[in-house]
Every structure is written in structure tokens, then in C-alpha cells.
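Dear all,

This email documents one entry for the complex benchmark we are building for the journal club exercise. For each entry we list the sequence lines for every component of the assembly. Then comes the predicted three-dimensional structure of the complex as a C-alpha cell string, followed by one or two observations. Please use this as the template for your own entries, and keep the labels exactly as they appear.
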Amino acid sequence: MMNSMNDASVSQELQKVFEELKSMFGSCEAVHIDARQYKLIVPSDKTLGMLTYLKSIGYSHLSIITCVDWIDEKKFELVYILFNWSNGATFLVSTFIDRDRPVFYTVKDMWPTAEYYERDVHEFFGVEFEGNENCKKPLMLELWDDLPPLRKDFDPLQYSKEHFPDRTYEKDPIHEARIIRGDIEGDIEGGEIDG
Amino acid sequence: MSEKNERNERNEKNETKTLQKSFFAPLLGWKALFEKPVTIRVPKEKREAAPRYRGFHINDWEKCIGCGTCSRICPTDAITMVEVPDMKQEYGMKPQRPTIDYGRCSFCGMCVDICTTGSLQMTREYIFFSHDANDFYYAPTERGLLDKEPSEIKVGWTRDESSELLDLDRILPDAMESSERIDSFVEFVKAYSKEQAVAEAARCVECGICVDRCPQHMRIPEYIKSIWKDDLKDALKWLLKGDEEQSNLGANPLSGVCGRVCTHRCEEVCTISHRGEAVAIRWLKRYIVDNVPIEEWNDAVSFDTSKTDKKVAIVGSGPAGLSAGYFLASMGYDVNVYESMNRPGGVMRYGIPKYRLPDEALDKDIAFIEAMGVKILTGVAVGRDISFDELKNRYDAIFISTGLTLGRSTRVPGSDHPDVVQALPLLREIRDYLRGEGPEPKIAKRVVVIGGGNVAMDIARSLARLQKMKYGEVNVTLTCLERTYEEMPADLEEIEEAIEEGITINPGWGPKEVIFFPDEDKIKGLKCVKCVEVFDENKRFNPKYDESQVSYFDGDMIIEAIGQAPDYSYLPEEWKAKIQFVGPRILTNNLRQTQIPWLFAGGDIVNGPDIIHGIADGYWAARGIDEYLDSNGNVEK
């Protein structure tokens, strides 16, 4: 199984995969991460084809779909992480889509779990996945009324200040800290500490 | 048996098995009643958090410098800096500590990742109960939220390479190699490119600890931020106008000079220097001044001034005098600066060597000061060409900033020989020679320099260049009382660069006498004895020697660079008697006013040698003079 294969034989196997990918999809950029991890950067029109092919040759476990906001380049980078149980190798299939028109295609027909990953990416980055009719359904952020929070132009501090106004406390934490440190003498009022 | 029967029998058997299994199954479950529960009975039982758990904070108050970077990065506004009463105030720290509101904290850990000193950490503690919301707001200390012995607290989340949020490595400006720079007096540190400057500016965390340290309190975080935004006119405005809401505090009319040769105390306290290299504040300042053409300065910097009819005289056009002139002009005063030398600038023109401060940089700063309306009268020595009393009659107030112009001698036997010279006059001659305004000074093939300060470095490095240009090789030996490089008052950077340039440095020796060739009026070298202690237990200068250890340094010429003294010969005795002195220095109040109400003083004669200190003196004196002239309405002449 996965541990029985050494890095060298995995690497040999991966070289074969690269060559096949090259002949099927033309040039694709492969970034070496470690002995069993490679990132493949593919044009978006070839992404689904490559995912289908990789799934068919054993890279069948979709670990997650995630996204990176490259705000200066005006791109979203979608990353599909595929794992092969038989050799322990991982491919990160990455593609760049237009940040101003963030639409891509669903892969939920290949991997049913993708429905949730796509909802997650939609919620945090605002990317839509055509064909996933539940895509816009809130997953974690119910009643969210701002920019998707993992976009680089989302300002968490401002959001925090607007939604959670400061409260005033009836104590002097520095005075308390100085008592705790033994800098000054005094009693600390307030709740029992520790459970 | 037929097949059918066989199948039936098998089915019956299976059914019995299933029945038995389902019938007894609940009993198997009951067995668990008598076993220990697998769930964790919080809070009686505690489950250890993961090693990288982001739990409650602890903060080492001894390590924390109150920079507030944690508070500025916090994405939920959970951290507030609060002043600590009675905390000792010292350079490089602010008397405040972070307080955290756990009603807001999202435990993201960015405060820990960015903490400039590493004082703020997260623990693996996560259980805390209280009915009182106040209890969730606290100032983390070494004892944490739960008030535990520090040794019992397990640290959780720790910053690593990938979560590091500070850029710890300084971007070095391009500079000439020592072998190249020794061949000429060309400024050997190159200016930052735009890319370099923006990247270096990005390293600043805007804590402002540097501002407290700078004698003039320059608006460092503001101008660095403007560099980062690539708005150099705005940056220049911060340099030349400072904080407009606080009477231009922090403005520096000699920013081009300070961007090159400032003693940069700001960098010594830079909060980034706790874990990395200080932000190159000095080089960033130079980048601003060099990259806004002088024609655009007026656009960027203008003052609303209404002219007054009051006149102020300034004696000496060094940093303090020019600074006072600039600020007085910005307030509408008519300012005349008297300078005995042929060019303005004082120590900046005649002391600091050209390879550190080229004339063009100084000229640019002075051009703007003159454009403000400051009149500089060069070649006019007060006391020689115009009397001090004449000044008093002509002007409403006088600011004196005449600097330290007299050298000190070791007075060892033989030091009265013409080839034993003082550093300051020689530096002046060298600068005049290099700008084609004077004859070539005597350049000996072998030189011994006595002194461990920056002036000693300046003269040693200048002579090394002249030797290289004239004879093709460097032969300069520097010796000083101080026993180590650290003890020497010169900047370490200067010492390192001098050594790179081929100068031999022999610390820890006291000059004893000048040695001559037998029967010849020619210097052979310097005899020194071991210096075992420079300062006594009261930290007073009181060197002690071991006369049994002797050393000889060869040289045809000996330069004394052991300190400078003020020359007050221009001051009439009548006024001199009324001024209060502390040693050689003049005592003033905060507004640099002497005991004589119309006489203000600043610069080296008040605060000792330091350019930025002189600039601050000029600023405060201008405010003092303004206050004095304002309150007096009609000043008696």
C-alpha cells in the first residue's frame, strides 16, 4: 500500500503521469512541492478534463476545493486537491478565473462531497459553480451581509467594529495585572478563576 | 436431501442466529454500565489541548516594550493598549501594555505572530468560567488569565517561519566595495531605488518608538508610510513641516544631510531590531529628499506666514543656526545668519568628509532654507568683522550656535611640532582642496591618528583616501585610549568601514611622547603606554596607565582628534559674565534662552556634538524667540 512504495518509485510513476498529461492537455506547468506532492497549473477550459482523467487513474479522493484571492492580478485561483490512496501522492490542480466574473463549473457529479466544498468557496470568496443548485445556500455564515470574508478587500476590523460595538468594562485591567504580578498590593474582585 | 430442503434448513439456522444476536444485543450494551465513561467529564477532568492550540494569552511584561503592534494587527479590535502608571520611562519602550477583550478576540493568533519582542504568547489553556463579563477583559501577564505560576503554564501556538509576519532583514542600499571607495571621495553608499525603498518601508510597523528617541521627534512612521504609498511629496512634507497641528514639531530642514550622516538613534530603538534588523530610517529619509526635485519642494511645502517687522541674528550657520533660521523664517521673522567661513554649513561643510556627505546634498537643503527667506552672510566673522554689540543694536534677538571649532591637544612632549596637527583644521583644508578652493594639504606617507571618536575616523579615512590617490597605498594607524571597539565613541559602522579601507586600529593605548629621528627634525612615530582604564568608578574620564607596557606606532605625521572645544572669543566679557556655563557648555532653559533674555543658544555649545540635536535646538530656540518677541511687543533696542 502507500507506505510500501518508496519515493523513487512514486516519482517514476508521477513522471509517467506528467508525460501522459502533456500529450493529452498540451503543456501544463508542474510545481514540485515534495516527493509526493505536485501542483499542476492548468487553463480553466482544461481543468475538468484533467480532473476526470486524474480521477480515472487513481487520484480519486477529492480532499478539498479551496481558493486564493490574487487581488492585484484580478484573479481567483481555484485549487482541487486530489489524493491517490494507492501511492500516497497528491496533485493540487490549480486554475485561475476572472475575479470580476467569478464563475466556474461544478464537479459534484464526479465527487458528491464537492457540493459542500463549492458552497464553502462560494461563501468565503463569492465564486459561483454552475450546475451546483445549492451553491448559494449559506453553509456557515448565516445572515452574512458583507463581502465574502476571505476576499482580500474585505476589512475584518471595520466589519468587527460595525457589527460589534465596543462595550465598556467596569474594571481597570492594568491595576489587576499589577496585583497579579505582585507589583502592587491589593485584592482582585470578580469571578472565580479556573474550572 | 433435496436442494430445496437444504436451503430451507440453512435459512432457519441463520434466522436463529440473528434472533439470538438481536435478543442479547442490549445486554452487551449494559456491560458498559460498569466501565469507566469514555467521555471527558469537564470541568472535573481536563483534556490537554494540542501543542499548537491557540488558547489564553500570556505576556512577559519585562520583555514587552509596549509598541502596540499586537493591537494594530488585531482584526477584531480586541486588543487595547493601556498606560501603566509609575512605569519607568526609557528610550525604546512605551509605558503601556496590551489588554485583551475575550468578548471580541477570535483567537486567530496574529498578535503572537507579529509580536516584535516575542513577549506575547498563547497557551494551551482554554477553560474559564465567569458570570461577570468584566472577567473576560484582562491584561495578560506572565501568570496568564488563570493566575498560575509561569512554570506551570504550557505554551501553545508559537510563531514559526511560515507564520512570521515581520520582515526581519533590512534591504541594504548598494554600496561600493572598500577597494573601490578608497580610490576617491565619491559618496560610497548609493541611494535606494524605488523598489528597494518601498520594500524597506513596508517593514515598518508604525509603532513610533523611534519618534520618542529622535531629539527632534521627526514624524518617522508618517514619512515611511508615504514612501510605501509612493507619495514622495507627502513624505517630504512630513520631513520639512513635521506635525502641522503641533507647531511643526518634528520638521527637519536638513533632512538631506540627516538622511546621510545622522547618528540615527531612532534605529537603535527600532522595535524591529528586537528580533531582526532595524528599519533603515536614515536611508529612507535620504531617498525622499533625493527623489523630489528641488523645483517641486515649494509645491509640497509651503507655510502660511505673515511677515513681522522683527529681526533676528544668528551666529554660525551649522545645523542649529540653519534650523533656527528656517523655523524663524517660517514664522515671518527677518533672519540673518552670520558665518565666518566662505561657505555655509559649519561642521556639515567643513567637518564631515565628502564621501559621507557630498556638497550637493547640503546645498539642496540650504537652497530651500534660503528660499524661505533666510539670508546667510558668509565670510563675516562676528567679533572680527562685526562686533557682537553691533548685532545687539541691529537685531531684536540673537541666537548663537558657533559650535566646537577649537581642537584639543594631547600636550605630550613633541606635540608642538608642526607635523603634529589637529584633525578639525586639517579636515577643513581637505574639503577646501577637494572642491578646488585651497592648496593640497600635506599628505604624509605614514600617519598616526590619536582618537577614538567619529572625527578621528573621518580624518583617518580621509587621509587614507588621499594617500591611496597620491602614493597608491594606505598607511594610517589609529590609536585611542578606549580599550575595545565597543568602548570607542565612534559608531561601530565607522570603525568597521575604516578597517575595511585598510586602516590599522590599535585601541587601548595612551600617547606618551612624539619620537623623532636622531639629530633630525623629522617625526619617527608615537610612543604609547597601555591604558588599563578610561573611566573611574564615578564614570568620570580619568585614564589609568600601565607604564611597563609600551608600544611604538610609526608615522611621519601625527593627527590629534581627541575632542573639540568652543571658541567664545566673539562674546564681550560683559555678556559672557551674565551667561551661565556648565563646563564649556552654555546653560539654557527649554526654549534655549540664556540668562540674557534676548540671547538664545543651541547646537554643540549647549548639547554637545550631534547634528540632529542641533536641529532640535534650532527648533526650540525659534519657538522661544517667537515667544520672547511676541510677549515683549516693542523690544527696547
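Observations: Chain A touches chain B at residues 156-157, 160-161, 164, 166-167, 169-171, 173-174, 176-178, 180-181, 190-195 (CB under 8 Å). The helical segments of chain A are 7-25, 44-56, 114-125, 156-163, 173-181.
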